[in-house]
Design brief:
This protein is an alpha+beta fold and about 90 residues long. The chain has one domain. It contains 2 helices and 5 strands. Strands 1-2-3-4-5 form a 5-stranded antiparallel β-sheet. A hairpin with a 2-residue loop joins strand 3 and strand 4. The radius of gyration is 12 Å and the shape is globular.
């Protein structure tokens, strides 16, 4: 699962799986969130509230880039890195 961004100890990865809608995984310590891109929402998992807010804020800022990364993975291409939250 390629890493597409890292910020504040959060690692964002993306894996294309055929039957699923566009999504990414956010890892923080032992926590994992699966976040849908369109619509932008936490689909599964748990993490501290602050981590959830940071991940959703970052995803809102980079939603188009996330969709582009999903499209690249669908074509078996490596996704581009996405800038971290500053």
């Amino acid at each position: 699962m390629p890493v597409i961004s890292k910020f504040y100890g959060i690692v964002i990865r993306m894996l294309f799986i055929q039957p699923f809608d566009a999504r990414f995984h956010a890892f923080y310590n032992d926590s994992e969130l699966i976040v849908g891109i369109m619509p932008l929402q936490i689909v599964q998992g748990s993490a501290p509230q602050r981590v959830q807010l940071l991940v959703l804020e970052w995803a809102r800022l980079h939603q188009r880039e996330l969709l582009a990364a999903w499209s690249r993975l669908r074509l078996a291409q490596r996704p581009e890195s996405i800038a971290p939250l500053e």
